[in-house]
Structures are given as C-alpha cells and as structure tokens.
Write a structure and sequence with these properties.
Chain lengths: 546, 405
C-alpha cells in the first residue's frame, strides 16, 4: 500500500509504464479476444488490470529513450521516460518529495503509522440497549524511528482504538495546544454511516483516521506531544480523560451556579488555573455569561475595552489567510472539474476504441473484398491506438489527482487556522472580561473604603466585606495575569504557525505545480507518440487524396 | 475536389478543344450566404464548375444553389439510376436554433461539396442530364425545375400506370392469399443484406462515440479555462516570484483551453463527419436494396401474369375464338413489359455488384483519410500540451525551496 490516500478516493495504479497487451497488436490473431478489452471502460478505482510489464514487440519506440518526434536531441529530455511512481508518502504528506515537509516528517519520531484491521466489538457496560451497542475498533501500528545505534526498547507498538478515542485525543490536543494549527480530526458523520454500506463506511473511516494520525505526527510541535504518544503507545484503555458531552457539562455547571452566585468559596470568580481554558464548553456557566456580556459590550458598547487586538501584522495576515481560503476553495473545485474532464475524455476514447474493435472484427469476418480486409486492419490499428491513449489518459489522471490533492489538503488546513484564531480571540475575551471585572471590583472597594472611613472606629461588617473584596481582587489579579500569559502564548503560537504555514505552503505549492506539470508533459508525450505512429501508418491515405 | 481522371484541376492552360487534353470536371461548393428573412430565411451556396467537357459551357461556370436544389438533384438521380448507390446528402432539417450556426453551415457546405464531387466522378452519374442542369442552368430555371417535382406529379404517366399496376397486383396477392412479398433466394445477396444492416449498427455506434469525443474535448477545454483562472487568483495570494509562476501556469492553462476547442472542431469536421457520411452511404445502399426488391417483385409478377396470358391465348387459339387476335396483341405487349422488367432487375443486380466493389474501395480510402486526420490532430494537440507545460518546468525549478523569497 502506497498509503497515498486522497480526497478523490482513487487508488493509484501500480507504477508501470508499458501497457500494450500482445493480443491487441498481434496480427497473427485477427479475431481479438475481447477479454482484455472488457476492462477498458473500467474506472480508476482498483487499478488497471491490463498493465503488463513487457512492451509489445510491434511498438519498440514506446519504451525507447528518444524524445518526442518533433524535438531533436538538443531539446530538454523527454518526460516520457520518467518512471512515474506514485509518490511514496510518509506520514500523510502527499506533496512533492523534495519539500521540507518531508524533512519534517523525517524528523518525527514516528516512522510510520498504519491503521488497519477493523473489528466489531461489543459494548460491555453502561449500554442502555440490552444486547445492542457494538462499535468498531482499529488496529494502530506505529513504527518508531530508532537511532542507528539501536538502543533497547521496542521499535513497534500496536494498540486498539475506537473512534471515540480519536475524538478524545483531538479534544485533549485542542485544549493543550491552543493557538496551534492542529490538523482537523475526521468527522463524526452520523448521517453517512446510515447511507453508506457498512464496510464502505468503515473503510473510509479507517483511511481518515490514518491520515489524521500521520498529519499529527508530522506537526513539529504536536508530533512530540504526550497525548499523541500515549494514544499510539499505551495498550488497553486510553489514559486520557474522556470528553463529556456538552449537555452533561451544562448540567454540572448548573449545579455549581447557585454556589457561585450566593458566594461560596471564591465568590464565583474563576480560579487562575481555569482561565487558561476557554469558557465555552467548560462547566463554568457564570464565566460563560460574563464573557458573553463582555463580548456584547465590546460589539455594541461605546467604550473600547482595555486590551484589543492591536497587532496590525496579525490582522493583515488574517485577512490574507481568509483570501487564501477563498481562492483555495475555488481552485479545489476547478481542480476536481479538471480531473473529471480528463477522466471522461480517456473513458470516451476507450469506448471509441472498443466500438472500432467490434467493427474491425465484423468486417474481417464478413470480408468479401480485399479493400474490406485492408480497411478492417486499418480500423483495428486505430482502435489499438485509441485504447492505448485512453489508458495513458487514465494513468495521467490518477497522478494528477494526487498532485492537485494538495489544494484540498490546504483547504482542510484552513479549519485548523480558524480554530487557532478563535483560540486567540476567546483568550482575548477572557482577558477583557477579567479586566472589566477588576475595574468594577476596584470601584466597589473604593466605595466601601470611602463609606467606612466616614464612620469613626469603623464598621465591623463593612471592614470584613472590604477584606473579602480585597481577597477577591487578589485572586482575580492572579487570574488576570494567568489569562494574559495564556493569551500571549497563544499569540506567539499563532505567529509561529503562520510563518510555518507560509513556508510550507510555498514549498508544497511549488511541488504540487511541478508534479502536476511534469506529469502532464510526460503523458502528453506518450500520447503524442501513439498518435504520431498512427498518423504515420495512415499517411498513404493523405497522399492519395491529394 | 475530385478530378475523375485523376488529373489535377486547373489544367485549363491547355485549349479545351484540343483532343489530347484529358477531360475533367471539378466542382466546388463554397461561400454560404444567408438570404431571406425570418421563417423563410435560407442559406445559398456558390457552386463553381470547372471543366473542359464539351457538354458544358466554357471553362468555368458559377451558379447559386440552395439545399433543396441539391435534394432535387439527388431525387432525380435516385429515380433514374436504380442500382447505383446515390451519394448521400447531409441531413435535411436541424433544430431551428442550430440551423444557422457557423458550425452547422460549414459542416453542410463540406458535405454538399463532397456530394456533388462524388456525382461528378461517378462513371455513370456524371453523364446525367440533371447534373448538367444543376451545374449550368440559371437560378430561375432551377427554381422552376425544382417546384415541378412536388407531389405525385413527380411521376411521369408511365410511372403512374406502374403505380396502379403495383396496387393491382398487391390486391390480387391479397385476394389470392399470396400476402407474403416475393423475395430473391440468392444466398450471396442474403449475406450482403445481412452485412449491410449490421454494418449500419456498428457504424452508428462508432459515430456516436466520435461525437461524444468531440464533446469531451470541449468540456476539457472549458475546465482548463476555469482551472487557469482559479490558479491565477490563487497565485495572487502568494509572494511575487511564486505568484508569477502561478500566473504563468494559469495562462498556459487558458491557452490550452483554446487549443482544445480547436481540436474539437477539427475532430467534428474531419473525423465525426466522415463517420456520419459512412452511415448515410450505408443507408443509400439500403435504398437501392429496396429498389432491387421492388424490381424483383415486378419482374416476378409480370412473368406470372404473362404466363397466365399465354395459357389463356393458347386456349383461345385452340377454340379458334375471335378474341384470339386481341388476346395475342395483349400477350405480346405484356411479354415486352415482362422482358423490360426482367432487364431492369438484371441491370440493378449488375450495377449493384460493381457499386459494392466501388463502395468498399471508396470507404477504405475515406476512412483511411479520416483516421489519418484524427491521428494527426490528436498528435498535434498532445504536442501542444506537452510544449505548454514543459515551458513552465524551468520556472518552477527556479522556485525550489530556499531559492524563492
């Protein structure tokens, strides 16, 4: 398995060039066995069963090193002779082999991750439906890159995971690596699982999980994460805290709310360690409300909040990324249309060839005139050329699909970028909320102080309130510092990731275009050769009619 | 333009009257022009005849003709030259919208040109008086001749008689219970009929795929244009040097789109049309087969009727009846007709076998040329594609990692 899965769901054909079957050009057997041609209209899926290694003795020039007929030896080398092997992807990168992405992948500690062997298992406990509740597990095999000195320790790990575990991994990573462009995890896609055949769905999911894990491993920061390591190496139950669904979280939050409102413990203010996580999706309902209020104040209120997104460079980049996303979307669409058009033309050529084969066979069987026999031979020649060209089109397309898949990959990456940007804005919102909390707390403290200073000897209850308030202010100050630190960290992550995106994107795009172009040239030359020969063989007709 | 004796056209440098000059007749159909308004609008063509045949006027003659004039010629020849495969005409009507499209007009013009030249190079057909009328007469005469040919008044009186006789014999067949039409029992001819019918199916399939291929070229052209545009826009998001490469790639893609549309047109005119023409030719053969079947039936019926008359005559002569004289005259008439019908049938048979050989040879040449044009066009296109993409490789190489900023 080359492992180069892609968006279009096509399997790469085996990396061979020659495809003439002897039966097609063998003139000793005029009644062609229809069997090899029955596969001619086959789709790309499943590879081309008609690829045989040895070239036909009748067409030596298809494997000769000479360049395309129209060029001399001084011209650039013919790409027809480049052996097109499908890109051997390592850990999910499907772009050119020279990019630093490959180098990054090579630096990852994970040499290869494979997902295989889906198994159905029974839900053992907590199942509401008696006898129901099956799920699928996948075998995940990880080969570790070991130093040449060959220290001890296993080089391969095998674990069994279910999709829920993948979701857990994704959630934990999202929490720990805010601000990073975390590769998006496979969809939960409930609807599709009902529409598709079960095995089709499982296969799609298997492939998606594999791609996802490989991408994670290739990320310079996340590839080294504990979460990923634990996921890949620890057999048995996944030792990451499971994500709970939003409903139960809200439920928990609702339980805590009265305590927060009526002042127990810290009086309902977020502790420092909690602020590092976003409010949304957490259990802290009060915090959610506060931040919501803050964001409304930001949007509609006249006063500017104390800290705003001022980083002009960031804003510029953000705009650029949005523009990029739009263009990627269009380009990805058009690439799909292009691939389809190329596939169609190849298919129709194949069908044309088939129709002519049948005609040739018919004429040969019914021939009563010599001119008929000659014509039958001519028709068969043309049909052969058409079928050859058709195969080249289809092969070329399989490669094109892989090259242009980079567009779709980057489009998918945009999701991660959005996520990272929203990490930043929610962190900012937390800071803003805390700042306005602080300012209102300070205002209250001032008022209390002013009021209690008017009473000589002090007011016991007021003094106690003031002390509590000062305690709260202290806690909130801590939280504020934490939040600011978290925010700055996220900003820094955004920055490095954007730089990485620019760098890698440039390289990946160059590789994509180069791969696309070289592939097109190579196959166009092959196709030109096929037709040039056919034109040569029929050239006597051209002279005759003049 | 096909010169019947194989000599190049334009050898009119030699005096037309000199006996040693090879005879030639070459025709061109050209210059389609839309005339008339609204529903009655039509296309007229300029037909240029160059010849040194004595029956024709001058070295060159130009007339204006329209499609229905060609139809007239075709139908006249079909009537007079039974047994010969009359060269087929392009299809009559088209969807209204399409009727005046440049492509359709060009396809029709080409087909009409081929049609008239096939007639001009056919050993028997080229001597036809109707051909001379078509090529020489002024437009008014042509229009008159054309409008006379409508309805059943197309037929001359003797043909009208024949129609009545046919009806009569059909009725008598029914009455006598001989409903099954009489057919030849010639195994070779049976084989030929079977061949022709099946050939039409195969050819229709090939032509269908050829037409689809034309469409696919157009679609690919369109998607290349769209892709090129999108790539250009995407490149605008990138830095200067890489953005330039994107832009170049997009431009090449758009360029190739144009080339694909061109090739689509070339395929249509020089590959798909010849295949369609082949199908039409086969249909023309089927028409001749119908003529042959009719002639055979007539011959059989007249032979039978004659026989009956002979028997009757003998009876009358034995009886020494006065009706014998009249009966003898009738019998002699009928016998002559029967012999005529037999001659007609045998002519058709003989002509058909010559025509079949000619047809096979002609089709091998036509198809060979079509294949050649197809291969040439595809090779040219593939080379253009290779050249366009190849020109980008050095630019992309210059953009390799760590070199572009």
């Amino acid at each position: 398995m080359m492992g180069a899965e892609n968006h279009y769901g096509l399997e790469p054909p085996p990396p061979r060039e020659e495809m003439e079957t002897l039966a097609l050009v063998d003139d000793d057997h005029p009644s062609t066995d229809p069997h090899p041609l029955a596969a001619v209209p086959a789709t790309l899926h499943g590879g081309d069963p008609l690829l045989f290694p040895p070239p036909s003795p009748h067409s030596p020039s298809s494997s000769s090193p000479s360049p395309s007929p129209s060029s001399s030896f001084l011209d650039p080398p013919a790409y027809a002779d480049v052996v097109f092997s499908p890109f051997d992807s390592q850990n999910g990168t499907s772009s050119g082999s020279n990019s630093p992405r490959c180098a990054a992948a090579a630096a990852s500690e994970y040499a290869r991750i494979t997902v295989s062997d889906p198994q159905k298992e029974q839900e053992t406990s907590g199942s509401l439906v008696p006898g129901g509740g099956t799920y699928v597990t996948y075998l995940i095999t990880t080969k570790i890159r070991t130093p040449a000195s060959g220290g001890g320790g296993p080089t391969e790990f095998r674990v069994r995971r279910r999709f829920r575990d993948v979701v857990t991994l994704a959630d934990r990573l999202a929490e720990s690596y805010r601000g990073f462009f975390i590769p998006p995890r496979p969809d939960k896609s409930v609807v599709e699982s009902q529409v598709m055949q079960k095995h089709e769905f499982v296969e799609q999911r298997r492939s998606a999980i594999e791609k996802y894990l490989r991408r994670l491993a290739a990320h310079p920061v996340i590839g080294k994460s504990d979460e990923l390591r634990v996921f890949l190496r620890t057999p048995g139950k996944l030792p990451l805290s499971a994500s709970t669904d939003v409903a139960s979280r809200m439920l928990d939050g609702a339980v805590r709310l009265p305590k927060q409102l009526f002042g127990e413990g810290g009086g309902g203010y977020a502790g420092p360690q909690d602020v590092v996580q976003p409010a949304k999706g957490g259990r802290d309902l009060l915090r959610i409300f506060k931040e919501l209020k803050q964001s409304v104040a930001n949007d509609w209120g006249g006063a500017k909040p104390a800290v705003v997104e001022e980083d002009k460079e960031f804003l510029e980049r953000k705009e650029k990324v949005q523009d990029l996303e739009q263009q990627l979307s269009t380009a990805s669409q058009q690439a799909e249309a292009l691939v389809k058009a190329q596939q169609d033309i190849g298919e129709t050529l194949g069908e044309l060839g088939l129709a002519f084969i049948k005609l040739a066979k018919f004429e040969t069987e019914e021939a009563t005139y010599d001119s008929q026999r000659i014509r039958a031979a001519d028709i068969k020649c043309l049909a052969t050329a058409a079928v050859k060209a058709s195969r080249f089109y289809r092969e070329s397309n399989a490669q094109t699909v892989k090259h242009l898949d980079t567009l779709h990959e980057y489009l998918g990456l945009m999701l991660s970028v959005h996520s990272a940007f929203s990490d930043r804005s929610s962190a900012l919102l937390t800071v803003q909320t805390l700042l306005s909390d602080l300012s209102s707390l300070h205002a209250r403290a001032e008022k209390l102080e002013a009021a209690s200073s008017k009473i000589f000897g002090g007011d016991k209850s007021r003094i106690r309130k003031l002390e509590d308030l000062k305690e709260t202010i202290r806690i909130t100050e801590d939280a504020k510092s934490c939040a600011i630190r978290g925010y700055e960290r996220i900003k820094e992550n955004n920055k490095t990731e954007l730089e990485r995106l620019d760098r890698e994107r440039r390289d990946d795009f160059v590789a994509m275009l180069r791969g696309f172009v070289v592939n097109q040239v190579g196959y166009a030359e092959k196709i030109a050769n096929v037709w040039a020969k056919e034109a040569e063989e029929t050239s006597r007709y051209a002279k005759e009619s003049n | 333009m096909i010169s019947p004796q194989g000599s190049p056209p334009g050898s009119s440098s030699q005096s037309p009257r000199s006996p040693s000059a090879p005879l030639f007749l070459s025709v061109t159909v050209t210059d389609p022009v839309k005339l008339g308004n609204g529903v009655q609008a039509y296309i007229s063509y300029r037909v240029i005849t160059k010849t040194n045949l004595p029956e024709y006027q001058g070295p060159e003659k130009i007339v204006i003709r329209r499609y229905s004039d060609f139809v007239w010629l075709h139908d006249r020849l079909a009537e007079k030259y039974k047994g010969i495969f009359i060269p087929p005409l392009p299809e009559k009507s088209a969807v209204e919208k399409f009727r005046f499209s440049a492509e359709f007009i060009e396809m029709r013009r080409q087909a009409l040109d081929i049609f008239i030249n096939r007639i001009a190079s056919h050993p028997q057909l080229k001597q036809s008086e109707d051909l001379r009328t078509f090529l020489q007469e002024d437009e008014e005469t042509m229009e008159r001749a054309r409008s006379q040919e409508t309805g059943i008044f197309k037929k001359k009186p003797t043909d009208l008689m024949q129609i009545f006789k046919d009806v009569q014999s059909m009725v008598s067949d029914v009455v006598l219970g001989k409903e099954k039409p009489v057919e030849e029992s010639n195994p070779e001819y049976e084989k030929l009929k079977h061949y022709i019918f099946e050939l039409e199916d195969h050819l229709a399939e090939a032509q269908k795929q050829a037409y689809r291929l034309v469409k696919r070229h157009r679609e690919l052209g369109q998607s290349l244009a769209d892709f090129g545009k999108a790539i250009k826009l995407l490149g605008a998001c990138e830095g200067d040097s890489l953005g330039k490469v994107f832009s170049d790639l997009g431009s090449k893609s758009e360029l190739l789109s144009i080339k694909l549309q061109k090739e689509a047109h070339n395929l249509l005119m020089n590959f798909e049309e010849p295949l369609k023409d082949y199908v039409r030719a086969v249909q023309s053969i089927k028409a001749t087969m119908t003529d042959r079947a009719n002639a055979f039936r007539q011959q059989c019926e007249l032979a039978e009727t004659t026989k009956l008359k002979e028997i009757n005559l003998d009876k009358l002569m034995l009886m020494r009846s006065e009706k014998a004289v009249e009966a003898e005259i009738e019998y002699k008439e009928l016998k002559a007709e029967s012999e005529e019908a037999t001659r007609r049938f045998e002519t058709i048979v003989k002509l058909m076998s010559e025509e079949m050989m000619r047809f096979q040879e002609q089709k091998t040449a036509d198809l060979g040329l079509a294949f050649h044009e197809f291969a040439r066009g595809q090779a040219k296109l593939a080379n253009e594609i290779a050249d366009a993409w190849r020109s980008l490789v050095p630019k992309l190489d210059a953009c390799s990692p760590s070199m572009c900023s």
